[in-house]
Amino acid sequence: MRKIPILACAVIFLAIASGTQAQVPNEPAHHTLWTVKGKTNTVYLLGSVHFLSPAEQLPSVVDQAYRDAEKLVMEIDMDDLDPQVVQQLTVDLGLLPSNESLESKLGPQVYTQVAKQAQAVGLDPGLLSRLRPWFAALTLVQLNLKQMGLDAESGVEQKLVARAAVDHKEILGLETIQQQLGMLSGLADKQQREFLLYSVEDMDRAKNDIDDLIAAWRKGDTRTLAQLLSEGLDEYPDLYRPLTVDRNRQWLATIEKLLNDRDDYLVVVGALHLVGKDSVIDLLQQHGHKAQQQ
Length: 294
What we know:
By secondary structure, this protein is of the alpha/beta class. The chain has one domain (6-293). The protein has helices spanning 6-10, 60-68, 83-94, 102-106, 108-120, 133-147, 156-167, 177-185, 189-219, 222-235, 237-243, 245-258, 280-286; strands at residues 33-37, 42-48, 71-74, 170-173, 265-270, 291-293. The chain has a six-stranded mixed β-sheet with strand order 4-3-5-2-1-6. The protein is globular and about 60 Å long.
């Protein structure tokens, strides 16, 4: 499989879905869903994709896990997000000082490439002028995904959040929106510049490659997903490690506490957090817990 643009995996928190072939006529033998047995309960771990076609259907095993779980745990507490807080954080962390511009941060040659990609996704390049490189990259990738027929409101989390609201199921967060955005805004200038440039250069290729990633997600093909993660770690360790391995380790203690509870939990995180070395699944197994893929 050709390498999918790093931004398409990392900035969308390591999970993307395609709008093609959205129906699931025959469910595969495996899914990106694992069960771990606690002393008196079950913790389900679901690998999610955050952008999906509205036509995408969640597998029946996910429906069953949702029904069994008394509470949901996601990367952030999705049902208690304050839009005003998110907007202010975006302004504080995503905008350049008034005396700087995106072109001055990137240089004329790179900025020309970025402007061209902005036009390709229907965005006036001038609207990027005050954005820090990481936020400009995120903006362009999201618009590109939208052009491909993908919808953040149809992602796995959003589907489950909507159901939880109706069913009055509590949702907890493994981290805060401040921590998530802080990881990206905390990248060094050189990393942010490379981050944006790589995503712009490979965005056209992503249209052909994302279906391969989604096919792997639908089939629970952990080998292909782990290969993708490994490529990112090998080529961009300073970027991928804080977005994957470091977060996995931070989440581990919280997830282990869930295994000592009486309630059943459905934990939903980006699919690439659950595959490969030092994934959440791998770390749990290192600590003596048996994770069974469904």
